[in-house]
Amino acid sequence: MGKPLHVLLVEDSPDDAELLELELLRGGFMPTIRRVETGDEMRSALAASPDWDVVLSDYHLPTFSADAALATLQETGLDLPFIIMSGVVRAEDAVNLLKRGAHDFLDKASLARLVPAIEREIRDAHERVQRRQAEERVRVLSLATEQSPVSVVITDREGIIGYVNPKFEKATGYSAAESVGRPIDFIHRRDGGEETYRAMWATIRSGQEWRGEFCNQRRDGQLFWEYATVSPLEDANGVITHFVAVKEDITARRSYEERLLRQANYDDLTGLPNRLLMLDRLEQGIAVAHRRNAFAALLYIDLDRFKNVNDSLGHTAGDRLLKEAASRLSECVREGDTLARMGGDEFVIILPGVDSGVAVQKVADRILDIFSPPFSIIGQDHFVTASIGISLFPNDGSDGQVLLRNAELSMYKAKEQGRGRYQFFTRELNERMQERLLLEKQLRGAAGR
Asked: Cβ-count burial of 377 within 10 angstroms (0-12 exposed, 13-18 middle, 19+ buried)?
């Protein structure tokens, strides 16, 4: 079965049309031919179907011509092979039409070249379509890159920038002229993140895509965070020739995440670690003490007579006192220690890796001393002391919850003894606690009966 071929034939001779059809059949085609003789007929045929494969045109017709037919085809914008067939035509006229866009010229008296010419021109037309499609894809990709809402950077194999898009210029403050020729990390903040860059290069040079976050510096010195996807570009042989980085500014997102993290782990009023973070630090302190075969201490601190200030002067005054108390307590801890607010007027200090109870006692004495001066609140002096309960790892407990409970119990014992003092956890306190728990259990049992 022959190859389908849709032919628009500009020809006034039915006999010549028949001869042409026979030649196409002999050449292995199965032609569908529509013959037209005027410009209107040709325009109508071109508008009726987009599926024409080739236009064959006689050079001269009574009311039409190859010159006019070529102009009619070009008006439509269709890229179809246009082949002129004639018996008598001057060479300069044929050359003129070829210059204007005709693809070939054949002698009607010798149609041996007809089939090869059609096959060649159809093949060339297909290649032109593919080339235009590729050019259009490049154009669209170029527009997408130029108008992208994220930064795009293309480098050579050594990471030297060859292209940046307008979003990169806007995000960094560096123009394309200032950026091209510089290494991709020239905006990278120099005091951190070197490991991140080393990991990135190791990944992309192995042919894999890398994703991660960078802290960069704008031209005006302002820092900003970007989430980057960096990919290698390979040639037809699989050799890496370039790298492309697509980067999104995530500064706002990072700031929001950091605020959420701080809200989850820190006290809003004092800025100190909250109970959640304190428990985590306590477990870390226990682990440090265990590794060093040392002690860890937990000091549970409650402000004496705070309620009097809060109730008489209001919550605003109470908040000011709590902030001042936190400030004083912060003077009693070293780097590596943790000062946390448990809530209300209760604070905790964690001392990891202390050598003995004597060192803990010195800290407790320091706290009592620093609470001796009055607090000046709304122009009045208020004496607020601290009662402190102390538990030690591993003597008073091997996990954080036990140490916390025992320190709190010791703090209440200090209050019973007159406030403004500290109390280490003792065996007696433990026995009293066990007795109280047993009594509570018996009372619940009796109530149940």
From this structure: middle
Task: Kindly calculate the radius of gyration of the chain based on its CA atoms and give it in whole angstroms.
Answer: 44
Phi, psi for 59 (deg, rounded to 5) = -70, -40
Over pLDDT 70: what percentage of the chain?
95
Cβ pair 217, 239 in contact under 8 A:
no
Nearest-angstrom CA–CA distance, 94 and 98: 6
Per the omega criterion (within 30 degrees of 0), is the bond before 373 cis? Answer: no
**Structure tokens belonging to residue 145:** 């890159």
Neighbours of 299 (CB within 10 A): 27
- Give me the sheet containing 338-343, strands edge to edge: 338-343, 346-354, 295-303, 386-393, 422-424
DSSP codes, 125-178: HHHHHHHHHHHHHHHHHHHHHHT-SSEEEEEETT-BEEEE-HHHHHHHS--HHH
Q: Are residues 426 and 277 in the same domain?
A: yes
Contacts 24+ apart (CB under 8 A), 108-113: 108/16, 108/58, 111/19, 111/20, 111/23, 111/85
Same domain for 170 and 99, yes or no, is no
In a domain, 261, yes or no: no
Q: What is the pLDDT of residue 372?
A: 93
Judgement on whether residues 407 and 295 belong to the same structural domain of the protein? yes
CA distance 328 to 308: 20
- Residue length, the chain? 449
pLDDT of 193 reads 67
Domains identified in the chain, total number: 3
User: Quick one: average pLDDT of 83-100?
Assistant: 84
Pick the last residue of a domain from 109, 140, 171: 140
Query: Is the alpha carbon torsion for 213, 215, 217, 221 positive or negative?
Result: positive
Q: Residue 130 maps to which CATH number?
A: 3.40.50.2300
